[in-house]
Specification:
The complex is a heterodimer of chains A (151) and B (735).
Chain A (H helix, E strand, L loop, with lengths): L1 E5 L2 E5 L7 H9 L17 E4 L2 E4 L12 E3 L7 H12 L9 H14 L5 H8 L9 H15 L1
Helix pairs in contact in A: 2-3, 2-5, 3-4
Chain B lengths: L10 H12 L34 E6 L2 E4 L4 E5 L8 H13 L6 E5 L4 H4 L15 H28 L6 E4 L2 E4 L4 E4 H8 L28 H5 L15 E6 L7 E6 L1 H4 L4 E7 L2 E6 L2 H9 L2 E5 L8 H11 L5 E6 L2 H7 L2 E9 L11 E7 L2 E6 L4 H12 L6 E5 L15 H13 L5 E4 L2 H6 L7 E9 L5 E11 L8 H4 E2 L2 E2 H4 L11 E9 L13 H18 L4 H8 L4 H13 L10 E10 L2 E11 L5 E11 L6 H20 L5 E2 L2 E2 L17 E6 L17 H13 L13
Parallel strand pairs in B: 3-4, 8-18, 16-17, 20-23, 26-29
Antiparallel strand pairs in B: 1-2, 2-3, 5-6, 6-7, 8-11, 9-12, 10-11, 13-23, 14-19, 15-16, 15-18, 19-20, 21-22, 24-25, 25-26, 27-28
The chains are: A alpha+beta (151), B alpha+beta (735).
């Protein structure tokens, strides 16, 4: 039995301990905002926060979450998260949208650590998140706008 | 402004016709006027696969518009939303003529029904592609909105006992100024449903537009920003099994034998079945099915498998490029004029296979019912997919119902003329038997190695210049597989042995050259191929636009000035060329190690010019720093979405320019995931400026036309910076 909190609620799962956290979240818990894109931490679509820090859930075994706190796109609520999501909508960042949960989780992680990132900080923090629609111009702009809103 | 006349076609007759052609499959086709006591149980459309309850419907003037007593206007969208913005664009067209408030508009994916929801450019076929969504729907959707508006006005006129002509409609409100009357669409919905459907309507003149040409916000931004948008990957149905498939290691191989014992022993694995293209493992969830698939022991029959490598293919293609092929264009006397030319230039260009690599790997949910088959999919080619799946089960295509979901990208992949991943799902459902829904999930590796690539090509070009450096002869030969051969599109798109998609962008060379020949050597390989964002232009634009630059250089002329002279009869090419040159400050000096390059290309009747600025760093590394894009797509229905498609489409092409390629080694696909099939990341994204030509022409598509222009612009910029020529994609600097 694996126990952790997800989006503030305690969770007990009786699953294969080598199940990646991604599939525990999607298939066992039923939260589908976190996406599967590559399965090897190459694309960032599966990004969630583990104890507040962005991780790739597709290569993180569910056991690594034992006793910890997991936040997914559905559970965002911080000021930084609100600023990021508002900026995303205001600038119409999304196209197909499949990568955007992961993009937003990475952006929130960045702004939580570094509320005023430089252009290079943004590129460095977001390089692990692939967007095949190439919405990168707007991702940069939205992070800057969110940063401004936070200050 | 609006036409007065009404048809004798009654509302009821209209519905009877709709029902007859709708074959009972059209979700949400409810009889207006009949009040519905119980809410509709389930509704197709993004975010609604789980069965969202919708408000009772009172007014449904046609198959595209539904107005509820709750004042919501639902626009039914016949095209797939895969990121290009069609849910917003098509809804804008309806809202414009309806004079609705943008905030009251909902969108919903249309059911599969080619009689009602066909792509008007494709005959009786429903599907999305070729950057046609806005273009083919431009009048259709506006007429749908205008008809609803007329019926609302007629209802209001009767209710208020006033003349229709004295009623105005604005932002979802009907008003009669002098009588002091006012009503919302919702308040008039029931009455409007009693009105006759106008046979024809007058549409607004462009100067009357309130929404078209403005930035209205995307309809899918909220759901795609808070994790609630539903993709095929997210569908979960009671009793659903997840299926993973072990595909053959090489194209053309088949299953000889397999042992399922170890796979079946994996907890959660429910079934192991052989299907025509491999072995499927079904489990209660992804992870059990994945572990089950990993435990399969399969012996493959590879006696007829494809075993070549990319180098061998390249050698074959290059040999073929020396031999004349099927003629796509032949103006004047190319061989003769080449002989007498003052200067002759040649180039042989190489293009690799490319994977679409949409971020949502291919997947599909399917369930067998007593009376047919139900599919949940981000479906891009409904009519073909219905037919293909029906074929597997031996049922009629109309018995295949498709629930539309968002697609996590596609770039052409989900419009597969062979319906490959849908047939695979169908084969699994059939092999398993019963009525349990099955979700096929491909891993990234499955997606990368399942084929349906942009074909590999070799181009051979030769041109002759006269003494003044003007081109007098142009010979262009293309070698590669046909995308269209063997598909339903072959009749119209393969002419005299020439697949038009193999030569588009080359055979319609816009440059004024008196002698032009374009021919095609079509190869046949067991490697499955398919259209990839901008199709033929993905390679022809690079060939044409880098070679014309080479000619300009040989003529000692400026690349923009050279093109300008040769594009005299092509004002829209010229328009974007001049705009991009001007906005990029073309001709201003660049520092050492830097270069600027231009390319201009038309695809899908949209004209795009791009200027790329590059910097060459140490160790043969370069960066693309800035890209200026000029686009002429006729009326820009939503300029912000046009800009988004220019930015993103350019980035998609830039990935192929910089690093993406699928290669073969002894028949095996070498690449498997994003570590070795590299795509563009944010740190490689240049600064982008988009400039839209002001135009009153009917709108044309923007999903694809930015993609093919960037590779030649970057190659030309690198040539300007280094003096090197670039004969293959992805681009690599020499020492």
């Amino acid at each position: 039995m694996i126990q952790f909190t997800i989006n503030g609620s305690p969770q007990q799962l009786d699953i294969d301990p080598d199940t990646p956290l991604l599939w525990a979240i999607r298939d066992s818990i039923g939260l589908t905002g976190t996406k599967f894109g590559c399965g090897m931490a190459q694309c960032g679509a599966c990004t969630v926060h583990l104890d507040g820090k962005a991780i790739r859930s597709c290569v993180t075994p569910v056991t690594a979450a034992e006793g910890k706190s997991v936040t997914t796109i559905e559970g965002l609520g911080s000021a930084a998260a609100k600023a990021v999501q508002d900026a995303w909508v205001r600038l119409d960042v999304v196209q197909c949208g499949y990568c955007q949960s992961g993009q937003i989780m990475s952006a929130v992680d960045l702004l939580s650590r570094n509320p005023h990132p430089s252009d290079k900080d943004i590129d460095d923090a977001m390089t692990g998140n692939i967007c095949r629609c190439n919405t990168y111009v707007r991702i940069r702009a939205a992070i800057k706008q969110a940063s401004k809103a936070l200050s | 402004m609006k036409q007065e006349g009404k048809t004798s076609l009654s509302r009821r007759q209209f519905l009877v016709m709709t029902a007859a052609t709708g074959t009972g499959l059209t979700l949400g086709m409810l009889l207006p006027g009949c009040s519905r006591e119980e809410p509709v149980q389930s509704q197709a459309g993004p975010g609604k696969a789980g069965g969202e309850v919708i408000a009772p419907i009172r007014f449904e003037p046609n198959a595209f518009v539904r107005i509820g007593t709750d004042n919501r206007v639902t626009v039914i969208i016949k095209h797939l939303e895969m990121g290009q913005g069609t849910y917003t664009g098509l809804a804008t067209l309806v809202a414009e003529e309806l004079d609705a408030a943008w905030s009251q508009i909902n969108v919903e994916g249309a059911p599969a029904d080619a009689n009602t929801y066909n792509n008007l450019f494709w005959g009786k076929m429903q599907g999305t592609g070729g950057s046609t969504a806005i273009a083919n729907s431009y009048e259709q959707m506006r007429k749908a909105g205008a008809a609803a508006r007329e019926m609302l006005i007629a209802a209001a006129a009767k209710k208020w006992q006033v003349a229709e002509g004295d009623i105005t409609v604005q932002a979802g409100l009907l008003r009669h100024q002098t009588g002091g009357h006012q009503a919302s669409f919702g308040e008039l919905a029931e009455l409007a449903a009693q009105e006759a459907v106008p046979e024809d309507v007058l549409l607004k003149e462009p100067e009357e537009f309130r929404l078209i040409g403005t930035r209205v916000p995307r309809k899918d931004s909220n759901a795609k920003t808070n994790g609630t948008a539903m993709f095929t990957q997210d569908v979960k149905l009671p009793g659903m099994l997840t299926a993973l498939v072990a595909h053959p290691p090489r194209f053309g191989a088949t299953v000889k034998s397999f042992a399922a014992g170890k796979a079946r022993a994996v907890p959660g694995v429910d079934a192991v079945v052989e299907i025509p293209n491999g072995v499927a493992v079904l489990g209660k969830d992804f992870w059990s099915a994945k572990k089950g698939r990993d435990a399969l022991q399969i012996e493959w029959d590879e006696s007829s498998a494809f075993t070549l490598g990319s180098d061998e293919l390249l050698a074959q293609y290059k040999a073929l490029s020396e031999k004349p092929g099927s003629v796509a264009r032949n103006d004047g006397d190319v061989p003769g004029v080449l002989l007498s030319a003052s200067k002759r230039l040649k180039a042989t260009l190489e293009f690799p296979f490319l994977a679409h690599a949409a971020l949502e790997p291919m997947n599909c949910v399917m369930q067998r019912h007593q009376d047919g088959v139900e599919i949940w999919n981000g479906d891009q080619f409904q009519t073909g997919d219905q037919k293909a799946v029906a074929g597997v089960f031996g049922i009629a295509p109309e018995q295949v119902k498709i629930n539309m979901l968002y697609a996590g990208g596609s770039f052409g992949r989900r419009a597969n003329p062979q319906s490959d991943y849908l047939i695979e799902t169908a084969a699994i459902v059939k092999a398993v038997g019963g009525e349990a829904p099955v979700k096929l999930v491909w891993t990234r590796e499955d997606d990368m190695r399942a084929g349906y690539y942009r074909p590999m090509y070799v181009h051979k070009l030769e041109a002759g210049l006269d003494a003044d450096g003007n081109p007098v002869a142009w010979q262009h030969r293309i070698v590669g597989q046909s995308i269209i051969a063997g598909t339903v599109f072959e009749v119209g798109m393969v002419k005299d042995g020439v697949d038009v998609t193999s030569v588009e962008g080359a055979s319609n060379l816009p440059y004024a050259i008196p002698n032009i020949s374009v021919d095609l050597q079509t190869t046949t390989l067991p490697v499955p191929v398919q259209w990839w964002r901008s199709v033929g232009s993905t390679h022809t634009a690079f060939a044409v636009e880098t070679f014309i630059d080479q000619l300009a250089l040989a003529a000692n002329r400026d690349p923009v000035e050279y093109r300008r002279t040769l594009l005299k009869g092509h004002p829209r090419h010229l328009g974007v060329l001049e705009l991009a040159a001007q906005k990029s400050d073309w001709g201003s000096p660049m520092g050492a190690g830097r270069g600027r390059g231009i390319a201009v290309h038309e695809s899908f009747n949209t004209f795009v010019a791009q200027v790329a600025e590059v910097t060459v760093h140490a160790d043969r590394i370069f960066s693309v720093d800035r890209v200026v894009i000029a686009v002429d797509c006729g009326i820009a229905v939503n300029p912000d979405i046009v800009r988004a498609q220019m930015e993103g489409g350019m980035g998609f092409g830039l990935a192929a320019a910089l690093s993406s390629e699928i290669t073969f080694s002894e028949g095996h696909v070498v690449q498997s995931n994003f570590h070795d099939y590299t795509v563009l990341r944010i740190n490689q994204m240049p600064k982008v400026e988009v400039h839209i030509v002001n135009s009153a022409q009917p709108p044309t598509g923007v999903g694809e036309p930015a993609t093919p222009v960037i590779a030649p612009a970057v190659a030309n910029a690198l040539s300007a910076a280094t003096g090197q020529r670039f004969n293959r994609l992805p681009l690599k600097l020499s020492a």
